[in-house]
Specification:
about 475 residues, mainly alpha, five-stranded mixed sheet, about 65% helix
């Protein structure tokens, strides 16, 4: 009971801390808007289409690589409205539920019996840079984590209930992202190697769920006539070479490997549960990368199992045998945590003014119900709830589907100033300059390392309204 209370208190504090700061890190960027837009269109207009996706026109059912997330997000937007905080809160809820499932699974499997070490493992996961980026943004990765957590919870149950949870979670994985289905396939294979016949029922249930989910997904896409769009999107994403720009991940990986080496084979190598988790944490990321890509958003695939291994070994007392190893491992873990969520919160506090969405709304100015807007992704949440139509700059620059008639109807642009000349030439007509974002202050030294661009990204926007009578 005490452990459950500690978990609940931790998760409540986690949600509260992030809810009050989630607007300020990360700055709104392309990825999250591309998956939010079809959800918003379905919730507001009843049409599952997108004006943010360059691969297909806005009169065709959206067929991005993670349709289930956007469908569920549409229901969330219907309940809580469309805003940066409401959309990002969906992932906060998903990740909180995931942590609760992993907690129950770990304890059922005989890991992390002490609430102290269990809470420590949870905090490391929640503070890790890539995981924190997932639950503080509007991408679809939180749903993949949630489905894996349900499968893990189900795998530690008994009887038919065990098979039901695994099967149900796996059905949804192909529509959540093929990388999630691939990861789960690797997990099932490693479980069979680690546990032998004992894992066979769950492995069959999981493999069956993945197969049924894939059949349902491609049948639906074929029925809607958008299989080619889905496959082209998958192929384009697969060809983007990507490795984690995540300081927390590499530090935690090093700490776990060091502790495993110090603990010795008799401690974990011959223990099926620890051997299984270690193999998942170490091998799955490599295999996912070889099959396609392994960006920062996927680091949870390794961080979750390795955190369980690390703190289980610490709980069993092997850290105390060598003070030097103890100090090194502890230092790596603490540094990894500080370089995750705390660094993101520091970035949010430092750039609070530059990332304030009230400032973005000031730049946008009043929106009329008949306005047709071309918007930078950063301005999306300020214009989409009020405008008649919003096209993302990505769709204009990379897509080939916008017609001259659609371009003529655009009467407002909220874009980066450096994009104005290109867009104005394509749209034609005369444009009146509006408000511009204030210049960003300089970077703190630590932010200059950038780990990607999220720590230093701010809003650089300006509004341009078409002059009446100066149509194309």
């Amino acid at each position: 009971m005490r452990a459950t209370s500690a978990l609940i208190v931790s998760l409540v504090l986690f949600v509260a801390l992030n809810a009050v700061s989630i607007e300020y890190f990360p700055a709104v960027w392309l990825d999250e808007v591309m998956f939010t837009d079809p959800a918003a269109n379905l919730a507001i207009d009843g049409k599952f289409v997108s004006t943010a996706w360059p691969d297909q026109p806005d009169n065709q059912i959206w067929a991005g690589n993670a349709p289930l997330y956007s469908l569920l997000l549409a229901a969330w937007i219907k309940l809580f409205g469309l805003s940066i905080v409401s959309v990002r809160s969906f992932n906060l809820v998903l990740v909180s539920c995931s942590i609760a499932c992993f907690w129950r699974a770990a304890r059922s499997a005989g890991l992390l019996r002490s609430s102290r070490y269990g809470i420590a493992a949870i905090l490391v996961v929640l503070l890790e840079y890539g995981v924190a980026l997932n639950y503080r943004a509007g991408r679809y990765d939180g749903l993949g984590l949630f489905l894996i957590a349900i499968a893990a919870y189900g795998a530690t149950r008994v009887g038919l209930l065990r098979l039901f949870f695994v099967f149900a979670a796996c059905i949804a994985m192909p529509a959540t992202g093929l990388q999630v289905a691939l990861y789960m396939s690797i997990v099932l294979f490693l479980a069979l190697l680690a546990f032998g016949r004992g894992a066979l029922p769950a492995v069959i249930a999981g493999a069956g769920g993945l197969a049924v989910g894939a059949i349902l997904l491609f049948s639906a896409l074929a029925g809607l006539g958008v299989v080619d769009v889905f496959l082209s999107t998958i192929d384009r994403l697969r060809r983007i070479d990507s490795t984690p720009k995540d300081p927390s991940f590499w530090l935690l990986l090093l700490a776990t490997v060091l502790q495993m080496a110090r603990s010795g084979a008799q401690t974990w190598w011959r223990q099926p549960v620890l051997g299984f988790l270690a193999s998942v944490g170490l091998l799955a990321p490599l295999l996912v990368y070889v099959a396609g890509r392994f960006p920062t958003y996927y680091t949870w695939m390794s961080v979750v199992p390795l955190s369980a291994v690390l703190f289980t070994l610490i709980e069993r007392g092997k850290m105390l045998e060598n003070r030097i190893v103890t100090g090194v491992v502890a230092g790596l873990v603490v540094t990894a945590c500080l370089m995750g969520l705390p660094l993101q919160l520091a970035s949010g506090a430092f750039y609070r003014r530059e990332r304030s969405y009230e400032e973005v709304r000031r730049v946008v100015g009043p929106i009329e119900p008949n306005d047709v807007v071309i918007a930078d992704p950063a301005a999306y949440y300020a214009v989409r709830p009020k405008a008649a139509k919003v096209y993302l700059t990505e769709a204009v620059f990379e897509g080939q589907w916008m017609t001259d008639e659609q371009l003529r109807r655009v009467n407002l642009m909220v874009i980066r100033p450096q994009d104005f000349d290109i867009l104005a030439e394509r749209l034609g007509g005369g444009w009146q300059q509006g408000t511009k974002s204030p210049p960003a202050r300089g970077e703190l030294p630590l932010f200059g390392h950038r780990f990607g661009d999220k720590l230093v990204a701010t809003y650089d926007l300006q509004a341009f309204r078409r002059v009446k009578g100066a149509d194309r």
